[in-house]
Amino acid sequence: MPAGLGRFIHARRRIVIVVWLVVALAGAVFGGSVYDRTQSIDSLPAGAPAAVAQDRLDALSPEGERVVAVISGRDVGAIALVDSVSRIAFEIREIPGVAEVEDSYTTGARQIATDNQGSLITVELKPGLSDDEALRVADQVSAALRRIDAPEILIGGGLLAEREFGDQAVRDAAVGESVALVCVGILLIVLLGGLVAGLLPLGAAVGAVTATLLTLTGLARLMPVSEYTVNVVTLLGIGLAVDYSLLMIARFQEERAADPRAPMAELVERTVVTAGRAVLVSGSAVAAALAGLFAFGDPMLSAMAMGGALVVVLATAAGTTLVPALIAVAHRRIPARSRTRGPGLLVRLAGLAQRRPGPVALAVVAGLLVLSAPLLFVEFANSDVRVLPRSSEARQAYEAAQERFTDPPKQPLTVVVEAGPDRPEVKQLFDTMEKLPGVDGVYVRSGLPAGVSVADVVPTGASDGRQAQQLVAGLRALDAPAPVLVAGPAAELTDAKRSVADRLPVALAIIVVATGALLFALTRSVVVPVKAIVMNLLTLLATMGVLVAVFQWGWGAGVLGFEPWGALDLTTPLLLFVFAFGLSMDYEVFLLARIREEWDRRTATDAAANDRAVLAGITAAGPVVTTAALAIGIVFLGFVLGELVAVKEIGVGMTVAVLLDVTVVRGLLLPSTMSLLGRWNWWRPGLASAASEPRVPVG
To answer: pLDDT tens digit string along 388-427?
Structure first.
């Protein structure tokens, strides 16, 4: 940290607080409008084959959004029902913006439930409508459909499901953030021993989050931002701001206890120089992890990375400016750290690990690998209407259509061939498609421009299931007389998976190199950063294994209040990787910064000195790490209170990652491996041995 920053903040503490207060008020007043600017974001990077195919289709034969209604509770042949549906169908055709209506009575599209107690109505809107215009028309259509004389009417479709997802995301954010702030506040008041001390980290969190909302409002003018992005980055901001505040407060308490007669300006300066440096390194590590999301080229992940980077910068700024200013103003209300308590959890675990480092390290690594075993059976998919809560009407309509009808609506794979359908080789190509495994039917479209053919290939099973994905590969591998493009849900999922697999090494390289360099700058060691990265990867693998067991297999689904849909959202492991990796680095930095200080204080360089430095560092930083982990665990449990399955995945995943990282990894694996390596923990190129490293005075 810049020399003199702490004194500068102390001298202008009220100005610093007023500036942050103005930012917080502006964020509270104007930041909420970010939800009015959010929008759904394509999950495919530009140039993906399925995206190119869809663009070509939109140019050739544009289609509008669809509204699907399931009419139930009365025999489909009842005269009153037939008259009511027919009358409403003709009314809907007259609504401006409606392109086509298909029902079982006024058109040839006979969609009757297997029990003859229900029928389907599909309304296609005109292509080219904006999102707002399409929603207005969909609402008019829905209002008309609800006038049908039937006991039960369920209305859904992709457009209405997207709106329900957005509305639910806003509700989940409000509930999650409110519960998280209240629970974290109570926890901090109890653990820090006072109302003011406990609320101080929350003040920093509110400042960081409101500033983030304000910034996201501006960002939404430049690039698409989803409701999901806002949810994730705001809760991440609360967690980081609380973490950094706790580190600064704990260091201030320590400096004051060591030198109670020192002027307050001096104490604030020491706090900022020591703890502030750790905050800066930690924030940089989290930002570096988020930067890895840009490598995937996914529009939603890019928005998440940009929003996450903003909240990290603002949380770091709050930790290094606002928190010292609040400490300078309220230092008399911050109690001394209790010395009556026994060794904390991390200290006890570290002592156990140092007594038997080999067996402990082996057992921990084996246990983490066992937890990661379910990852061998993982299935990834793009989230659809099934991630909405059971109470969602759009989901109910979808499930009713899929379960009660022999030929439910299904999104086909659409094949575009850049050659006319009258060519014999094109006809032969379509005949070959019908014979491919997993094909339920091939339907050639008419009314297209000359020189191009389009066919809808209906897969057996789910529209984006494994069989459909294999069919995509089969269609693209056909020996065609002209270029062939394949669009549809299965094609999009196939391309998304391939894009992730192709770009993952680049993202890993960005994250590993950046965080490794930051840890090297902090510890002046090559071994410690490499070991930290390996331990973080073990934590992430174990976390992903737990997620597969919970969300794919359904273990504990009843307790968490969701229904498994047989897969994980494709973006979940990517977001978990960067968030959990970054937050794990938080705790790694907090501990290593103190361990390094203790190592630098010692003149001996043998294994015993190394163990004493490790234990002393964990003793000093352990309470902060434990409290921070409890706080951020509560924050991410706020995700679990939400109704969206994709959001629950992040909440459970982050909570599991934090729990494993702070107890098993930092409490057992870190000290045991450092004991095994001894003084070689501190080796770097250019040193004849770890013992020859010059000592840097601390203080």
So the answer is: 888 899 999 999 998 898 777 778 899 999 999 889 999 9
CATH topology of domain 66-156: Alpha-Beta Plaits (3.30.70)
Least confident range from 100-114, 205-219, 335-349, 453-467: namely 335-349
In the Cβ-directed half-sphere of 368, how many Cα atoms lie within 13 Å?
25
H or E element that contains 441: strand 439-444
Q: Which of 150-159, 355-364, 678-687 has the lowest mean pLDDT?
A: 678-687
Q: Residue 473: how many CB atoms within 10 A of its CB?
A: 12
Q: What would the mean pLDDT of 239-266 be, rounded to a whole number?
A: 90
Contacts of 59 (CB under 8 A, 6+ apart): none
Distances (CA, A) of 597 to 331, 366, 610: 25, 31, 12
Tell me phi and psi for residue 259, to 5 degrees: -145, 75
Residue 345's contacts (CB-CB under 8 Å, 6 or more residues apart) are 622, 626, 663, 667
Closest by Cα among 181, 166, 170, 164 to 637: 181
How far is residue 635's CA from residue 640's CA, in Å, rounded to a whole number? 10
pTM for the model stands at: 0.81
Distance CA(406)–CA(257), nearest Å, equals 75
Domains 66-156 and 412-487 share a fold: yes
What is the topology classification, in CATH, of domain 412-487?
A: Alpha-Beta Plaits (3.30.70)
- CA gap 392, 167 in Å, rounded: 11
Sign of the dihedral through C-alpha 407, 411, 417, 422: positive
CA–CA separation, 468 and 157 (whole Å) = 21
| Host H or E run for residue 118 | strand 118-125
- Can you give the residue ranges of every domain in the chain? 5-40+163-336+344-384+495-692, 66-156, 412-487
- pLDDT tens by residue, 644-672: 888 888 889 988 998 898 889 989 999 99
* Helix/strand/coil (H/E/C) assignment for every residue in 562-630: CCCCCCEECHHHHHHHHHHHHHHHHHHHHHHHHHHHHHHHCCCCCHHHHHHHHHHHHHHHHHHHHHHHH
Which strands sit side by side in the sheet containing 152-156, from one edge to the other?
98-102, 118-125, 66-72, 152-156
